[in-house]
Amino acid sequence: MARDWYGPIERFGDAFKARRKLWVLCKECGHTALADPRDLLVRLGDITLERAGRKLRCRRCHRANAYFVPQDQPWSSLR
Q: Of 29, 31, 68, 64, which is closest to residue 48 (Cα–Cα)?
């Protein structure tokens, strides 16, 4: 059984250890998407969520101004 995560989720590595997917919300147009931290770790490395919000571009408005919200429940398996 996986250990429960205690503490803030400030980096992609924290979200992975906590087994939480991340909602990505665009501050400009309100577009949302669900992201897997495993994919983001491979793509961007273990950077802070704040820094990633300035790097990732929205698919709708193409601006780099996003923030992340971790899901409440962990994913069911580590497939």
A: 68
